[in-house]
Amino acid sequence: MTDLFSQYKVDNFFDEMFSASGVARPHYSRLLATFKEMGAADFARKRDLAAASFLRQGVTFTVYDDDQGTERIFPFDLVPRVIPAREWDLIERGLTQRITALNLFLHDIYHGQSILREGVIPKQIVWEAVHFRPEFMHFDVPRNIYIHICGTDLIRDREGNYLVLEDNARCPSGVSYVLENRQAMKRIFPTLFSEYRVRPVEDYGQELLNTLRYIAPPATEEPTVVLLTPGVYNSAYYEHSFLARSMGIEIVEGRDLVVRDGYVFMRTTKGLKRVDVIYRRINDDFLDPRVFRKDSGLGVPGLVEAYRCGSVSLANSIGTGVADDKVVYHFVPKMIRYYLGEDPILENVPTYLASQPNDLEYIIEHLPELVVKAANESGGYGMLIGSQASAAEREGFAERIKQDPRNYIAQPIVALSRSPSFCEDSMEGRHVDLRPFILDGEKVTIIPGGLTRVALRAGSLVVNSSQGGGSKDTWVVDEEEA
Amino acid sequence: MLSRVADSLYWMSRYIERAENDARILDVNLQLLLDLGGEAEAMQHWAPVIASLEETDLFDSLYEMADEHSVTEFLTLQKKNPNSIFSCLTLARENARTTREQISSEMWEQINRLYLFVQSDDARKLLASSPHEFFKRVVNGSHLFQGITEATMTHGEGWEFIRIGTLLERADCTSRILDVKYHILLPSGESVGGNIDTIQWMAVLKSCSALEAYCKLYVSQVAPWKVAEFLIAHQEFPRSIRYCVDSLDAALHRISGVDESRYANEAERLSGRLRSEVDYVTIAEIFETGLHEYLIAIQERLVEVSEAMYASYCASLGAP
Q1: Any CB–CB contact under 8 A between B256 and chain A?
Q2: Are A453 and A435 in contact (CB under 8 A)?
Q3: Distance from C-alpha of A303 to C-alpha of A262, rounded to nearest angstrom
Q4: Count: domains in chain A
Q5: Which of A17, A327, B88, B263 can bridge B269 by disulfide, Cβ–Cβ 3.0-4.6 Å?
């Protein structure tokens, strides 16, 4: 009898669900048994129901490819990605270690800079980083935490090892999809949830609020926390509004805030109301037209001054972008050893720095085998996948790298792990990554699982939503034999 | 509550109510045609609709003449008309999108559903094949939204702003629907109080879902002054101007927490004045002023209240 998986091939990749074609990993066995009983038509119907429900609820992001902007849903694949507790424990320890080191690093480079003085990281790499903010040297951030909310992208290589691909230490997005995907899955496959003990993600809003309240200025008894959004036209507006709702706080735009006598207030129907903590989903550059970009209509004049006085706290802090610079990324394992005296639990993907002459030569000679990335781009932009580019594209990129070596890194093309995904009428392997969300407040809290992004185009390695990516629900399950 | 959010809630509900009223006016006019028959008579029913909405200039720039097709398109799916059903529901949803943390998920889903409907091909086809069904869908969609709002949202400050938006818009629309009759000329040879005149006044009542309520009161004796009196001054009918103004004044006072016999800001002073005027006016006085003139004055008063409310709650910087 044919079922959804009868034609499924593992090929030469690490497959999340099967150890070999036809042999499911133990933590997937019950899932497979359930899915095998379903026909393609039934599965497609369930997928369409989920899509219709996302559309009806307005769980959408905006794509600006015309003057109007179109709202799209983030494609959702119904086959969950399952992570056994044993693997998750390793990830959790690795990410905790990593954010601890990153926060120590940020404190150090904005104070004594011992890591630079001792030559562990070359001085100019930090000083030339676009998002380094020397104007905040010797500024003490509340509770000494710089990155409160971090999204670190993990991938798995052919052997199934988890590797860190990049850190997102400014305004990482995607957590709303984690929560929405879970809700959708519970509606569609309720029995699976009673069979598996899936670790819940629903308390993320509460944990995030705890993190934000923790950094409130001292002696604020009931801190007022707000979420600052660039506005309804921002592609992630849905997420901003979702998070504000799940925390029960106000979502504000720059024009709703005003600075008076060094304090930040929001304009309400009952007059001005003091604001203590701002979860800002606006990049540094747009925060305050008096300090950063003068043309920013999104920010709040005087906000940075209030922040400096300590009358308002920001999450994340200003200047964290230096920690997720793709060149600085290369040095994170060294930071971990330097600040914590530990070996990194999660390894980086091997990285070549174009700014180092030997590496530059290697990069130019081996372009067809490498992925080249601009140091400060995201969303899959400013990137060259050597094997998929034409000779002309590679030459063009080589020229750009030589012009501005500080701004480029290269990595070998990692054969990302694959997960079965529903395509047309059967299951096919598609490449996935994982973005767990890490909160650093009174303690480090990580949402179990995170956002699994899947490259839905056959053979594609790019999982970004702007490039044809979708997402899956991610389950951390407690029993290996589930 | 954030001033911007209060303003958005207010406009969200105004736009939904406006879309509902567009649908009401069109639906009744289409049905009126069936009663009247005759090409020439039918034609003169469309220009007054546009005139009462004060949209003649925009309409003339888009269409050559006011007939069933052009007026229906103008008020339903015409994107260039900022007050078409399409535009109103789009704007209502934009306002809802910026106030998601204030309104309930159920309210949001209902607005979104209405918006997705008018965006769809299905809506276009439905309007072409059975316009009555299309209008019913819009009106029912608006009613469902109001019911959901009543049943799922905390009746606090935000809810009052939503209520005020609905009431202000509804009072305005009722005045415009009454005014349509002023603009419709009776066919030559017809007399006031004649057959066609009566049918037209019944259509006005139907536009406001008021025919049944009216008949209970006046036993289907449709006389112009009685219809006007009912739609302007009835104390309990939810679409009468008086009901809307009374409720609006009460809602404003619930926001400020000040007793209804006093006023705390300009919006309350103006709404209180309008309330007492509508409460104590007689139908004889209205006809003495002229119905059309009286209705225009009401519309202007409503604009004043709206502006004063914006100044009091939304534009204010206040002191800490």
Answers
A1: no
A2: yes
A3: 8
A4: 2
A5: B263
- Beta-carbon contacts of residue A150 (< 8 Å; ≥ 6 apart): A99, A102, A167, A168, A169, A172, A437, A438, A440
| Domain end point (choices A322, A340, A358) | A340
Q: Can you give the CATH number for the domain in which A395 is found?
A: 3.30.1490.270
pLDDT in tens, chain A (482 residues): 578 998 999 999 999 999 998 899 999 999 999 999 999 999 999 999 999 999 888 888 777 665 556 778 889 999 999 999 999 999 999 999 999 999 999 999 999 999 999 999 999 999 988 899 999 999 999 999 999 999 999 999 999 999 999 999 999 999 999 999 999 999 999 988 988 889 999 999 999 999 999 999 998 889 999 999 999 888 889 999 999 999 999 999 999 999 999 999 999 999 999 999 999 999 999 999 998 888 878 899 999 999 999 999 999 999 999 999 999 999 999 999 999 999 999 999 999 999 999 999 999 999 999 999 988 776 667 788 888 889 999 999 899 999 989 889 999 999 899 999 999 889 999 999 999 999 999 999 999 999 999 999 888 888 877 777 899 999 999 865 54
Burial A344-354 (b: 16+ CB within 10 A, else e): bbbebbebbbb
Q: Is A87 exposed, middle or buried (0-12, 13-18, 19+ CB in 10 A)?
A: middle
Q: Which of A466, A255, A179, A304 is nearest to B98 (CA)?
A: A255
Chain A residues with CB inside 8 Å of B157's CB? 269
Whole-number Å distance between alpha carbons of B248 and B242: 10
Q: How many residues belong to chain A?
A: 482
Q: Are B4 and A255 within 8 A, CB to CB?
A: yes
Do A371 and A335 belong together in one domain?
A: no
Q: What is the DSSP annotation of A65-91?
A: SSSS-EEEE--EEEEEEEEEHHHHHHH
The residue count for chain B: 320
Q: Are residues A266 and A325 in the same domain?
A: yes
* A401 and A322 within one domain: no
Domain residue extents for chain B: 1-152, 163-320
Backbone φ, ψ for residue A253 (5° rounding): -105, 165
Percentages of chain A per state (helix, strand, coil), in multiples of 5? 35, 25, 40
Q: Is the ipTM value over 0.90, yes or no? A: no
Query: Rounded to whole angstroms, how far apart are CA atoms A430 and A423?
Result: 9
Phi-psi region at A144: left, alpha or beta (left = phi > 0; alpha = psi -120 to 50): left
Residue B108: list chain A partners with CB under 8 A: 57-58
d(CA B226, CA A109): 81
DSSP, collapsed to helix, strand or coil, labels residue A34 as helix
- In terms of CA atoms, which chain A residue is nearest residue B112? A56
CB of B145 within 8 Å of a chain A CB? The answer is no
* Residue A142 near residue A310 (C-beta atoms within 8 A): yes
pTM of the predicted protein model: 0.91
Domain extent, residue A393, equals 350-412
A68 interfaces chain B, CB cutoff of 8 Å: no
Are A319 and A384 within one domain? no
